[in-house]
Amino acid sequence: MPDIIQLLPDAVANQIAAGEVVQRPASAVKELIENAIDAGADKIQLILKDAGKALIQVIDNGCGMSLTDARMCFERHATSKIRKAEDLFAIRTMGFRGEAMASIAAIAQVELKTRRHEDELGTCILIEGSEVVSQEACSAPYGTSISVKNLFYNTPARRNFLKSNPVEMRHIIDEFQRVALANPHIFLTLHHDGQEVYHLPSASLKQRIVHLFGNNYNQRLVPVEEDTTIIKLHGFVGKPEFARKTRGEQFFFVNNRFIKDAYLNHAVLTAFQELLPEETYPLYVLFIDIDPAKIDINVHPTKTEIKYQDEKSIYAIIRSAVKRSLGKYNITPTLDFDQENSIGHLITPKPFEEIVQPSIAVNPNYNPFANEKRTQEREIPFLRNTNDHRQAIPRNWDTLYEISKKDEVVQHLMHEEPTIPVNQQEVTKGSEKQFFQVHNRYILSQIKSGFMLINQQAAHERILYERFLQQLQNHSGISQQSLFPQSVTLNSSDFELLKELLADIRALGFDIREFGRNTVVVEGIPADITNANEHELLEQLLEGFKNNLAVLKLDKRDNLARSLARNAAMKSGSRLSVEEMNQLVDQLFACQMPNVALNGKPVISTVTLAELAERFEK
């Protein structure tokens, strides 16, 4: 029997490795930009076409490569970052495995142009599917330019799994933001289909956050600083009132490498305990500087997971540092009035020699009872001489009684609701049933078997959800035009998401058009929504959509209808008139699923007479 185990060809092995390293265009963008950072570049340009499917080009002004290095970088496990196994525990660079370039070259058409500072000519290499097409000298600026064209062109099954351009672009923006936050000293630009998405000059960390997420983030940041023998911690956390319903703006960096760690994330959330609204998450951008020998980053191909030697100490340091910063900047109240600086700026310091003791003038001859008689006579003239009956009775005394002869003025209420006696409230017709509101949260109604309680917020959410879902299917949403159109500026990731959902959002009744980079103009909102702020409504709609997408994996239209219904529904505590309660109940029972709320919990709870009798008998 012949041998059946064979060594795979390099091209096949590279394609298998690419399945772990390069999962989508964003993965290739991450690897190429990190290589540019490791090359010492302080200016990096990222150029994309079709969300990276047609072209990914990274241009840097780093150290460049020689002819031999340019050819060697496409070999598997070829790297300049480490030399021996011990180097894995002293890594300060982004890459170290030597798999990225070989994996990208195995599934795309790659063009590399590079030149070192000391060389007169550079090197140009063309590779398609791990096969070198050409290699020649060329004229090139110092640094490196890598163009990745037609990603997954030779693996059509992988290409078919790619999402739409807006979805892939959002993943690329996420990777770009992580690199930009970790390296605020590097000038970065991002162009997509000929349009500039980001232009980030070299700046401080706070300025970089503002450039990435918007000018309104300037007032949301609280600095965090801690220096211990175990770690050095610095960065920013967001104020509690600006917390969001998604975890999108949470960044941990260990030695300038972005990581995902639920344990450290719990440390930050614990520091915000009792400060955040329910089911919201704070913004944080935190950097941990630690000895590389105390961590292991060779855990996952994406290098986003790290093992620590002393996790509990790091947890405690992060928690206490964030909590102290929130107290120091008066986000949390303090009882130490010596350190309370919230009123310190209201007191203007004055030199000691200019302080003058206040003086009080006192009249020792003042008699407060001297003018009492004259004042009394002046204010009540008919009491001057009580012996004179002609003077004691004032003139026109009979006019005092004219006010009693005037008709009483009755003030009518604008929306007066009829009051129905208790003995007349029990009727048989469903449309004439009387409803009572309990603590402005529940609607109570009597039924034959007892009574039922309706959660008014959950009921309104169910009504709006089914209505919006029908409007999305029929494209029948009615728009209410705004008197003054509002311009709304979003971050790049949310703007790409909005462009993806724009057709369905318009079907709901929104009148929106694009207006420049990352900005839209809202000229109308759905007619079912009243007294809404366009900016808040749009942001909450996108936040709810992202939250549902991460938790429930819903269909796009179902997700959109669910998100808008939750944001547009009346909130718990809203007072309703009898007519409004009647209308709400009628619309609820006209729904397809009136008994189930959007979160899967019941909308209606019934209590029978037998249950009441049993409870009172006890």
Automatic annotation (TrEMBL):
Family the UniProt entry places it in: Belongs to the DNA mismatch repair MutL/HexB family.
Name of a matching Pfam family: MutL_C
Job description of the protein: This protein is involved in the repair of mismatches in DNA. It is required for dam-dependent methyl-directed DNA mismatch repair. May act as a 'molecular matchmaker', a protein that promotes the formation of a stable complex between two or more DNA-binding proteins in an ATP-dependent manner without itself being part of a final effector complex.
All copies of domain MutL C-terminal dimerisation, residue ranges: 434-576
This protein's UniProt keywords: DNA damage, DNA repair, Endonuclease, Hydrolase, Nuclease
Top-rank taxon: Bacteria
PANTHER family per UniProt: DNA MISMATCH REPAIR PROTEIN MLH, PMS, MUTL, DNA MISMATCH REPAIR PROTEIN MLH1
CDD domains assigned to the protein according to its UniProt record, in alphabetical order: HATPase_MutL-MLH-PMS-like (cd16926), MutL_Trans (cd00782)
Keyword Disulfide bond recorded: no
Name listed for the protein in its UniProt record: DNA mismatch repair protein MutL
NCBIfam families, sorted: mutl
The organism of origin for this protein: Mucilaginibacter litoreus
GO-annotated molecular function: endonuclease activity
